[in-house]
Amino acid sequence: MNRLFTFFTFLSIAFTTQLASSLPSKQTHTLKPASCVYFLTNNDVNSVVAIKIDPATGMLMGEGIETPTGGRGMAALNAMTGEPLTGDTLLSQGAMVAHGRRLFAVNAGDNSLSMLAIDYRDCTRLKPMSTPAKIPNGEFPVAVAYSSKLRTACVALAGSKDGVSCFRANALSLQSLDCNPRPFSLNQTTPPAGPPGTVSGLSFNPSSSALLVTIKGNPGSTPAAPGVILRYPVNTATGLVGGAETVQRFSPPGTAILFGFSPVPGNDDVDTIVFTDPTVGAGIVKLPVEPKTPGTQDVDPTNLQLVQIPGQVATCWSTYSPTRNSFFVTDGGGSNLVEISIPDGQVLGNVNMTNPVNVGMLDATFHKSGFVYGLSPGENEVAVNVWDVRAGRGQIKGVQSFAVRGTGATSRSMGMVLV
Q: pTM score > 0.90 for this model?
């Protein structure tokens, strides 16, 4: 059994892990007949891998079907060794996003964004809708977000030319909306070296009134750099994301390596975000929408709930469950799935996969039918772990560790989405 990754060894050496309802008990949704999960190989010739879901059981079946994005992948560097990472190779959450029958994927090796169409009759059949869109004056895209309301896709760039760059998603192509990215000014290289001090992810808030970005801090720097949540306002009249001069910066106290996050819908006056941080575990923070004054903002401690996860190694990825009012987090150094309630931050369940193909999980996605799918790339093969959570909140059962066959996917694989 393989163990992920040299990256997580680095995390455990560099930082000390700080250890410390009223919903229905049974969900009755069923999977649509043509459901698939997708992940990104991030190989030099970048591809999307599609795997069918058995609608009767929720488990994966058949071989993976690989479709080139038309772009190139690339791995970030281990800051301790200077060598390319062999796991979590983009140091991010959200290398892909899907909406309707369209899928967006980043190409870190040639600074481009791909948009692919998903066949209505067979979800494993993908077709690039055009050649990948080049990102003007930006390098090493690691995450993508899409707003159907704005018809806009934005990418987070983590290289020496970093920042946020956005595109209008037209019927058949992507149209750049920016001449230059909104810079983060992280003073990174291309490829970037991390994990500390690198970009983690981005997402539009539920109302598409703001674009949110997380950036890891660097506790080992002098002075220590805190983790940061950036919030860019969206002009509701034009649908355009604000420039660098409009951004707000939030650093929740007690956090250091802000990683993957998920916005929570429900209140237009507050941006509620569930996030991961391997120095703690996870957390929930509420960021008031007003005032919109740019610059560094204080985080009211009463609006922050840190969640310590005993025994965690590198909790870095999250997926939100709207039907359960909870979120799930995964650990790159362990094969467990953790469910956390909203808003009180109670750990509802923490269950290990029995006999996993690999140790560790990265990106995960929740399906309303009551299944969670988590990517688990190892040194010799890539797996997707399947969890049945239909029995109710906190009731987690690992039902499948699916070894992906028939593709060129390696430990460089990233992302996990479901259609």
A: yes
Strand, helix or coil at 320? strand
Q: DSSP characters for 89-107?
A: TTSSS-SEEEETTEEEEEE
Task: Give pLDDT tens digits for 112-152.
Answer: 999 999 999 999 999 999 999 999 999 999 999 999 999 99
Residue type, 342: I
Instruction: Name 68's bridge partners.
Output: 47
**Could you identify the residue written with the tokens 């204080």?**
298
Q: Are 314 and 278 in contact (CB under 8 A)?
A: yes
Nearest in space to 397 (alpha carbons), one of 326, 336, 345, 341: 336
Cβ count within 10 A of residue 146: 23
Between strands 248-250 and 295-297, the pairing is parallel
CB-based burial label for 245 (10 Å; 0-12, 13-18, 19+): exposed
pLDDT tens profile 160-193: 999 999 999 999 999 999 999 999 999 999 999 9
Q: What's the helix, strand, coil split of the chain in %, to 5?
A: 5, 45, 55
Question: Nearest-CA neighbor of 111 among 169, 163, 147, 172?
Answer: 163
Tokens of 364: 């995960």
Residue 305 in 3-state DSSP? strand
Q: Which residue's entry shows tokens 């997926």?
A: 319
